[in-house]
Prior knowledge:
392 residues; alpha/beta; disordered N terminus; globular
Amino acid sequence: MDSSVTRILRASCLPLALLLSAAGAGAQTVKVGIVGPFSGPFAHYGKLFKDGAEAYVATQGGKLAGQGIDFIYRDTGGPNPAVTRNLAQELIVKDKVDYLGGFVFTPNAFAVAPLIQETKTPTVIFNAATSDITTKSDYFIRTSYTLWQVTVPMAQHAYKKGVRKVVTAVTDYAPGVDAENSFKAEFGKLGGEVVESIRMPIRTTDFAPFAQRIKASGAQAVYVFLPGGPPNLGFVKAYNENGLRQAGVEFLGTAEMDEFDLQKFGDSALGLSTAFHYSAAHDSEENRKFVAALAKQSKETVANYASVGAWDGMYVIHKMIEATAGKRDGDKAIAAATALKWESPRGPVSIDAKTRHITQNVYLRTVEKSGDRLINKEVQSFGLQVDHGLGK
């Protein structure tokens, strides 16, 4: 990345909205800033955002609503709120972007909310999954998911199966707390018991001590939330090596069997169940088009929740550009987005007008083999789910 990635803008004595209004006149293309990690341990998210977004535009002939699209990418490196805020300010004021997209981590999304609100810049969250993100600015829209949205149906499913005692084991940051709270609230309401709640530091690499605590708890299942990447592999390794599977402690997850990492698990992942809104094995014509478009974009990318979040995020931006005839009008763009319903690669979706969050099916998925590859086989649909967390 060039040096502008980490440049911190000097504070201006003029309001950002005024600077933006003056700077944005005469734009010939629509500029979309994509913010995410393009370096470091979470760099795969940046690539998936880039591939998903660019693949969508390619399927539209390189233009959206007749407008050329100029992508500008900025690297947060990871969960870095201060850096992310400065990058967003640079994109809005210096680069004069019309839209923002991306955002893997909740703290980064929170950090840019005041800028988004002040400048009325429509911003599509491709990933960050804490429920109340969209409450922080009227110009946030989310095309990913929330932990409440995918966890509530998993808690219901576990209880219906006869599970009554569960340990929650989550990474200790905002989405992990959301995951823990959502499972405890729903499972407890049904009559189940969370016998222990474990919060694991975000930089944990050794999960064996946590696996041993889970095994000793007497729980019938463990509900897990971990950020994508190495933590998923580390936890599943500890789950198997410490005998939790053999002891009958069922694995209940959400994104842990992410397609980006799935083949790395090998047979250790077979039979593990997750509740999630997307599987690369989803059987629909829209998903087949998406998978083919991604493969054409890059041979090194995968169809997963991050790339589909970017793909659908660009669909939303496409419709906002269409509604505003390519001109900058944050209020009109958001009004158009909150009326959207469409067929996504994940199934039927819509944007909730009140929360500005995506309503979508959540599926029970089980890891199976298809030929010589692992897939997340959708074995049940829990039906359309809203974000159950807002207002809690």
